[in-house]
Design goal:
Elements: H1 3-27, H2 33-43, H3 55-75, H4 79-110, H5 115-126, H6 130-139, H7 148-173, H8 178-210, H9 215-235, H10 240-250, H11 253-280, H12 287-315, H13 320-329, H14 335-344, H15 351-395, H16 399-403
């Protein structure tokens, strides 16, 4: 078969399959990310039906997918929002890093993978999935809840931290020494600072220069500028993904809204290709040996994410129920974890299988945790309240007389007085969407 013909057939089969899988995932209320990864595992090295003709094209598409993911993420935020989040959320961001990055680093060291792999796996377990979490909050009708700005603030802090973390990881993976890594980090920090300053002071001018009433011209200019900046950033060892993120931050207003509307379908297509490519590059036979460590790591970091959300929400003055909802919503890991693992897999191939299994577990567990963390804890609390008086009666502390004590006098006649409404002074926020 001609090489071009084989390429078209394989690409057509992949894209059609992704479309059908995405529709199926939507119908059952599941994120399509784990299904995309499974498709890649099925058709990659060691899978059921390896695809070779489209491998190079899918690899380039995966790079574009990462760039578009970060560009669209940057378009969601303005420079002023990022600066505001830095000022108000940095303690919560620090707690998030300590609680969720350290388990990944410790796991890599315990497995004997070395310090560079520890830095990479720390990133995999640290960063929550903005895409999965945003969809869960929308589907559950929680966008108006009091805890939602806290959740978004944590996600913004994580996204901004990536602008520093990714260049540092790239330098470490490239074998650059401490001095070279420090220079790369300074370049990254300087670049982020310059972009934030330019966006704050001259954001309107930048957006006006890019703006166009013609959707085709706007698409070409924004996409071309993003790819150009991403390439230059990659050359400077700052990471192409960070360059794309900074372009998104620099654009604002109607330009950002128009670019987001035009680029979202492209983002969805190439992001799906990226997840498939990561699955293609992972040998499925390597996953069963790391399934138990991945499961243990998933359980530990699901709990630490719930603690992170609890701390951040309580710090913002939100009550226990809202704090639990915030923690449960942050559990899901997804696109960023795969991006980090994709960078590291060339240097430390063992990260690929454990990252794949880890993301598969938490991208499924995440929506369940968002829905059931608060009701489950509330039910356990009620069970304890019921069990405590019974235990006291059994021990003779209260005695049978207390159990058989007459009820307080009713109001008028034989109609009992209504029970007072429960008072929850520490949880004033409304409950929406379950």
């Amino acid at each position: 078969m001609h090489e071009t013909t084989a390429l078209l057939i394989e690409l057509g089969a992949i894209i059609l399959g992704l479309g059908l899988i995405g529709r199926f995932a939507g119908r059952i209320g599941l994120s399509p990310i784990p299904l995309y990864l499974l498709v890649g595992l099925a058709f990659g090295t060691g899978g059921l039906l390896p695809m070779s003709a489209s491998e190079d094209f899918v690899a380039v598409g995966a790079e574009i997918g990462v760039i578009l993911l970060l560009l669209l993420l940057g378009l969601e935020y303005s420079a002023s929002e990022l600066v505001g989040s830095l000022k108000t959320q940095y303690p919560s961001g620090a707690v998030d890093f300590v609680l969720n990055a350290l388990p990944g680093a410790a796991a890599a060291l315990l497995l004997g993978w070395g310090p560079v792999a520890a830095v990479a796996l720390a990133g995999v377990t640290w960063i929550s999935s903005s895409g999965v979490i945003a969809k869960v909050l929308t589907d559950m009708g929680r966008l108006g809840n009091r805890e939602t700005p806290v959740i978004l603030g944590i996600l913004v802090m994580e996204d901004l931290a990536m602008a520093v973390y990714l260049p540092l990881l790239t330098a470490l993976l490239a074998g650059v020494g401490l001095a070279g890594g420090s220079i790369t980090l300074l370049i990254a920090l300087g670049t982020v600072g310059i972009v934030l300053y330019a966006a704050l002071r001259h954001g309107r001018l930048i957006s006006r220069a890019v703006s166009s009433d013609n959707p085709e011209m706007l698409l070409l200019v924004v996409l071309g500028l993003t790819l150009l900046v991403a390439g230059v950033a990659q050359e400077l060892q700052v990471s192409a993904a960070v360059g794309a993120f900074l372009v998104g931050i620099a654009l604002s207003g109607e330009v950002a809204e128009g670019a987001r509307r035009l680029l979202t379908p492209l983002r969805d297509l190439f992001a799906a290709v990226f997840f498939v490519f990561f699955g293609l590059s992972t040998d499925p036979t390597e996953i069963p040996p790391v399934l138990l460590p991945a499961l243990l790591l998933a359980v530990v970091t699901a709990f630490t994410k719930i603690l992170t959300g609890w701390y951040a929400a309580r710090r913002a003055g939100i009550g226990p129920r809202g704090s639990l909802r915030a923690g449960g919503a942050l559990v899901a890991r997804g696109e960023f974890s795969i991006v980090i693992a994709g960078l590291a897999v060339a240097t430390e191939p063992r990260i690929g299988p454990i990252a794949t299994a880890y993301v598969l577990i938490l991208v499924i567990l995440g929506p369940l945790a968002a829905r059931w963390t608060e009701p489950l804890v509330a039910r356990v609390g009620e069970s304890r309240k019921v069990a405590k008086p019974l235990a006291e009666c059994t021990d003779g502390a209260a005695g049978p007389a207390a159990v058989a004590a007459p009820a307080p006098a009713a109001g008028h006649g034989d109609t009992p007085a209504p029970a007072p409404a429960p008072v929850t002074p520490n949880d004033p926020e409304p409950v929406q969407g379950g």
